[in-house]
Amino acid sequence: MLVSMLCWGSWANTQKIDKRWRFELFYWDYIWGVLACALLFGVTLGTKSPAAPDSFFRNLCAASPRSLFEAFFGGVIFNLGNLLLVAAISVAGMAVAFPIGAGLALVIGAVINYIISPKGIPFFFLAESR
After folding, report:
1. pTM for the whole structure
2. How many Å apart are CA 128 and CA 96, to the nearest integer?
3. SS3 121
4. Tens digit of each residue's pLDDT (9 = 90 or more) over 3-12
5. What is the pLDDT of residues 19-62, one digit of tens each?
6. DSSP sequence for 28-90
C-alpha cells in the first residue's frame, strides 16, 4: 500500500497513455496487487518458523470458518464499493462521485448498524439538523 500511495498519480497518467483500457478497470490491478502483497507478507514476514504458535497458517487455522468468511466477504464488499466509486468518477467526475458515494455510505452504514444493534434514539436519524 505504501508503494501504491507513492504511485497514486501514475494511475491517471497510465490511463492517459492507453485510452483503450477503461479507467475503472485499473482498480482490478490494485485489488490483485494488495491481495498478493498481503499473502506474500503473511507467508514471509508472518513468522520465522512455520511451526511457531503465532505463524500465519496456524492463525488462519485457529480462526473460525465464520470469521474467515466475514473477513473475506467484507473485503469483497469494500472492493466492490471502491470499484463502483471509480466507475462513478469516470462517468460523473470526482466532484460529483465522492459526495454521493460518501453520503450513501454514511446513511446506509448508519441504518444497517442501527438495524443490527438498535441502540440510541431512532428519531435522530430522521431529525433535521439546524
Report:
1. 0.68
2. 23
3. coil
4. 767 766 666 6
5. 777 777 778 877 888 889 888 888 888 776 767 777 888 888 88
6. HHHHHHHHHHHHHHHHHTS-S-TTSTT-HHHHHHHS-HHHHHHHHHHHHHHHHHHHHHHHHHH
Mean per-residue pLDDT, 76-98: 87
Name the grid cell of 56: 500465519
82 φ/ψ angles, rounded to the nearest 5 degrees:
-65, -40
Q: How far, in Å, are 8, 81, 93, 128 from residue 100 at the CA level?
A: 22, 12, 11, 19
Question: How many CB atoms sit inside 10 A of residue 24's CB?
Answer: 18
- Using alpha carbons, list the distances in angstroms from residue 106 to 43, 52, 73, 86, 102: 35, 42, 19, 18, 6
- Going by C-alpha positions, the residue among 26, 16, 7 that lies closest to residue 82 is 26
**Cα(2)–Cα(21) distance, integer angstroms:** 24
How much is the average pLDDT of 11-16? 70
Contacts 24+ apart (CB under 8 A), 35-40: 37/1
Joined together, the cell numbers standing for residue 84 give: 463502483
